[in-house]
Amino acid sequence: MSEVRITAENRTEFGKGAARRTRRAHRVPAVVYGHGGAPRHISLPGHELMLALKTPNVLLDVDLEGESLLVLPKDVQRDPIRPVIEHVDLVVVNRGEKVTIEVAVHTTGSVAADALLVVDAQTVTVEAEATHIPTSVDVDVEGLPVGTQIHAKDLGLPEGTTFAGDPETLVINVVAQQSAAQLDADLASSEADLGIVHEEKSADAEADAADAAAPSEG
């Protein structure tokens, strides 16, 4: 579990105008909440925060004017165009406290040559100590044959981490690869369901198309 120390400042101005001024100063508006305390409005250095958030479920040790706060990013709002974080919600946690959080599923290896890997669940919900949250749940799929299914209950979780969702959730599904003929048939079926009809070309039209595609002589 990654833990990053970052320095914050209290915010005393609120509203859209104040938020824009904070961002112009290359800082990110944030709200800290949790454990029954009143929400606290702070700002964080934009570049340092962006680097920290590259690690999934990073734990932030926030130095707020001499006070230390241990927090997890809960909601990160990003600019849809520019690589800028606009706002972040942070939830306070205590060392040793159990938290429920989404963790990404990461596969290693390749399935059998005639098989296709389908990851049905990109994330799984786990419960872990706040200071020992796994960055991912790794699944080895090397050589798995067609028909193999891995459910949440089958995952190998790190020590101290337990699954918190439906244990029957399908996570990995290994299916047969489709041939070109099967793909064409599926496409034709889908088009038929949508009412799409392709007009058949006449022999004369096909001949004209062939003449147009042929290189001219002389």
TrEMBL record:
The Large ribosomal subunit protein bL25 beta domain, residue ranges: 98-177
Region (Disordered): 1-20, 199-218
This protein's GO CC annotations: cytosolic large ribosomal subunit
CDD domains xref list: Ribosomal_L25_TL5_CTC
Bias kind Basic and acidic residues: ranges: 1-14
GO MF term set: 5S rRNA binding; structural constituent of ribosome
Keywords for the protein's UniProt record, in alphabetical order: Ribonucleoprotein, Ribosomal protein, RNA-binding, rRNA-binding
Keyword Acetylation: no
GO terms, biological process: translation
One Pfam entry name: Ribosomal_L25p
Domain Large ribosomal subunit protein bL25 L25: 6-90
Domain of life where this protein originates: Bacteria
Family to which the UniProt record says this protein belongs: Belongs to the bacterial ribosomal protein bL25 family. CTC subfamily.
Oligomeric form and interacting partners: Part of the 50S ribosomal subunit; part of the 5S rRNA/L5/L18/L25 subcomplex. Contacts the 5S rRNA. Binds to the 5S rRNA independently of L5 and L18.
Function: This is one of the proteins that binds to the 5S RNA in the ribosome where it forms part of the central protuberance.
PANTHER family xref list: RIBOSOMAL PROTEIN L25/GLN-TRNA SYNTHETASE, ANTI-CODON-BINDING DOMAIN-CONTAINING PROTEIN, RIBOSOMAL PROTEIN L25_GLN-TRNA SYNTHETASE, ANTI-CODON-BINDING DOMAIN-CONTAINING PROTEIN
Designated name of the protein: Large ribosomal subunit protein bL25
Native organism taxonomy: Bacteria, Bacillati, Actinomycetota, Actinomycetes, Motilibacterales
UniProt gene name: rplY
